[in-house]
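Duplicate of #3305? Posting structure anyway:
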């Protein structure tokens, strides 16, 4: 008997959700919305588009930008204007979140009572299992936009790809790509063996600009204690003031950190002061505590340097 008297937005409809509007404009009453991540205090929403996103609910009263309000995600919406539709009408969302009788995605609501003041909707926000872009399909998707749709995470978490329930690929939150390793140390990190002592292949690219003939640190490779690191660097450089003067420099060395010092260990380049020169461009390996620095020096004018670094590490 008591429960039958609990009719109202706050008591009888437990699926009324408080949300934030940060879209830049007011969300009007009866606008269909979709979830759009977390706001300052509550989940935030934006107008629905069933061909791209899953419908979340229907706005009760207008929600100005930068404020919070109620959305009915499931159940009865009471005391609203439903006079535009006869009783029993099935309603959907158009591409802008407006209620419509035109079939588009899943059913959003059904008109229970048609009235300008005391109208009642029954909200279901049924997902459209046939919509090609609501979820990624195993047979492919159509109608997607690379600028809006993606496979991945929307928070500061990595992405794992598995086969046979075993992880094969990991993309870190910073964008490092690991193939066969869950903690990639470079932009591309490949490991096909299982030994914990060796890192596999770590690779990334770099660029640097100089305007003088002094040495500048273009890249730094960390070398942990009790770690031996093999470093290979290939550099292309060009004077940028419409000059034909270019250079290619390739360096390979080993570096060891015994906890007391970081030293270059290589039969070909015995000291950190060995300089590689080509057409007046110079490159040098320099050690600092726990690191190897790649330093470059131009010819005195504006120069652009670019290249790639390949690293192999052995621990212990």
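Output from current build:
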């Amino acid at each position: 008997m008591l429960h039958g008297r609990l009719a109202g937005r706050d008591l009888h409809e437990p699926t009324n959700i408080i949300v934030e509007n940060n879209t830049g404009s007011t969300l009007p009453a009866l606008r269909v919305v979709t979830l759009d991540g977390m706001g300052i205090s509550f989940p935030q929403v934006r107008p629905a588009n069933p061909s791209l996103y899953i419908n979340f609910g229907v706005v009760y009263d207008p929600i100005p930008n930068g404020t919070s309000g109620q959305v009915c995600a499931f159940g009865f919406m009471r005391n609203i204007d439903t006079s535009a539709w006869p009783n029993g009408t099935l309603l959907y969302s158009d591409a802008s979140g407006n209620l419509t009788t035109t079939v588009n995605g899943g059913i959003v609501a059904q008109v229970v009572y048609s009235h300008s003041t005391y109208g009642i909707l029954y909200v279901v926000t049924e997902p459209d299992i046939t919509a090609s872009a609501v979820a990624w399909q195993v047979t492919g998707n159509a109608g997607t936009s690379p600028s809006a749709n993606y496979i991945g995470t929307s928070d500061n978490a990595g992405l794992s790809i598995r086969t046979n329930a075993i992880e094969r690929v990991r993309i870190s939150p910073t964008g490092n790509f690991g193939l066969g390793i869950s903690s990639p140390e470079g932009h591309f990190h490949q490991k096909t063996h299982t030994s914990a002592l060796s890192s596999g292949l770590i690779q990334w690219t770099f660029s640097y600009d100089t305007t003088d003939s002094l040495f500048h640190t273009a890249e730094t490779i960390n070398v942990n204690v009790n770690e031996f690191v093999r470093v290979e660097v290939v550099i292309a450089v060009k004077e940028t003031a419409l000059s034909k003067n270019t250079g290619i420099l390739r360096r390979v060395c080993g570096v060891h950190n015994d906890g007391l010092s970081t030293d270059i260990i290589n039969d070909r380049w015995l000291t950190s002061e060995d300089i590689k020169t080509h057409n007046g461009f110079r490159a040098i390996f320099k050690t600092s505590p726990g690191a190897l620095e790649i330093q470059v020096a131009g010819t005195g004018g504006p120069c652009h340097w670019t290249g790639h670094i390949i690293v192999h590490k052995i621990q212990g």
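Confirmed duplicate; merging threads. The chain has three domains: 10-123, 160-190, 201-315. The chain has no helices and 23 strands.
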